[in-house]
Design brief:
Elements (H helix, E strand, L loop, with lengths): L24 H13 L5 H9 L5 H18 L2 H11 L1
Length: about 90
């Protein structure tokens, strides 16, 4: 897939070596802390599924919806922030 010049490289698909999809070290640290600090154990697997290159657009929307539901039901604000990362 083509890469765009803006947004910290968020248009790049995640890889095993770069699962957070960013070239900016500060943004990478921010994203990692969002994922690592979540108290809900399903946030990371949903992030991985939603950012997979095999994930269809409808499945990506479902993952973001589930992450937002986790935030609404548990108060885990990191889940909402991760939903935004999935939608990028």
């Amino acid at each position: 897939p083509p890469e765009s010049g803006g947004g910290g490289g968020s248009s790049r698909p995640p890889t095993l070596l770069d699962p957070l999809r960013t070239a900016d070290p500060d943004e990478e640290a921010r994203r990692f802390m969002l994922l690592a600090s979540s108290t809900n154990v399903v946030v990371w697997p949903l992030y991985v599924a939603g950012t997979s290159s095999a994930c269809r657009e409808d499945a990506r929307a479902y993952v973001a919806e589930r992450l937002r539901a986790i935030c609404a039901e548990t108060g885990d604000r990191q889940a909402d922030a991760v939903a935004g990362m999935v939608e990028e």
